[in-house]
Amino acid sequence: MKIGELAHVAQCTVETVRYYEKEGLLPAATRTAGNFRQYGPAHVERLRFIRNCRALDMSHGEIRTLLSLADQPGAGCGAINAVFDQHIAHVDERIQELVQLKAQLSSLRKRCQAEQAVDACGILHGLAAMETEAKHKRHTHLG
Amino acid sequence: MKIGELAHVAQCTVETVRYYEKEGLLPAATRTAGNFRQYGPAHVERLRFIRNCRALDMSHGEIRTLLSLADQPGAGCGAINAVFDQHIAHVDERIQELVQLKAQLSSLRKRCQAEQAVDACGILHGLAAMETEAKHKRHTHLG
DNA sequence: CCACACCCTGAAGCTACTATAGAGTCAATG
DNA sequence: CATTGACTCTATAGTAGCTTCAGGGTGTGG
Question: Computed from CA positions of residues A121, B16, A98, B58, in that sequence, does the dihedral angle turn out positive or negative?
């Protein structure tokens, strides 16, 4: 199959497929006489795997690790479990951050219930008065 | 004050300050004879406002909007409330996404409790078998 | 033979910074 | 007065994971 069809079955764009090839996530396809990429079932499987990982918000690094682990048939899957556990921890951490954020936002929002002059707007005052805190380094790739 | 001191009181780096100036979030400073940027209290206030917004994960676009609204003293703050409500909705949406994600990840994780050969690993099988879904456009800038 | 859908490469754009190189400024010290 | 060291300047490139664009080539139906 050609790249358009592959992209279609894997629910992504043609550009994304080419990008994955350039990144080394997807092995390079063979080419037709006219220099079109030619794909088979193995490519479909791999691309679907990658897209499923991305749907779970894994980074390319995590996916690369999983793929290389999966490619060693003799190995055990302890390392795979570890990648997964760490990723779940990332997601959890980000959820906690966002929940806290929402609490802060909601409390600010309460300060301005009415339409009034901006000079009196409790939100703006709150934003100006907040204690500016140093941004702590993020351990996750989840924005 | 010079840029280093400004960065210090606003809890960010010198590079970030220069970046905000280039982006137009922070007005350009006056310069000393030696071409060093020179800041006053108004810059401190504005930069702290920006950093506080960023601590609440607002995008530069959202901050730009807030700043320009705040700069119109005669105007009402309905538009400000709207920006805020929308941002809270973004955060909420992202929390929902991540909670769902975590459920998916946890259910996958349960499929492989033991160290075993990768061929038998339930996680890998699950990742390969998942229904690949089209990535829906994200309405938020929160990763 | 032509239109049109599809494919190709390479480079730039997106967000919000961070990092680096190479040079200039300024206050204090010897 | 020269030097040291902390600070500043500009310009450029890198980060993640794509998307978009420009400027072409390929292949098929009428």
Answer: positive
Separation between Cα atoms, residue A67 and residue B127, nearest integer Å: 11
Is the pTM here over 0.90, yes or no? no
Domain of residue A94, residue span: 78-129
The sign of the CA dihedral A113, A117, A123, A125 is negative
Domain harbouring B60, CATH code: 1.10.1660.10
Q: Name the residue facing B143 among A92, A117, A142 (closest C-beta).
A: A142
Tell me, yes or no, whether A27 and A55 share the same domain: yes
Using the predicted structure, report yes or no on whether residue A65 has a pLDDT greater than 90: yes
Q: B19, B21, B101, B70: which is closest to A121 by C-alpha? A: B70
Please name the nucleotide lying closest to B34, CA to C1'.
Answer: C25
Nucleotide nearest to A35 (CA to C1'): C8
Instruction: Report protein residues in contact with nucleic acid strand D, where contact means CB under 7 Å.
Output: A 12-13, 15-16, 19, 32-36, 54, 59-61, 141; B 2-5, 14, 18, 35-37, 135
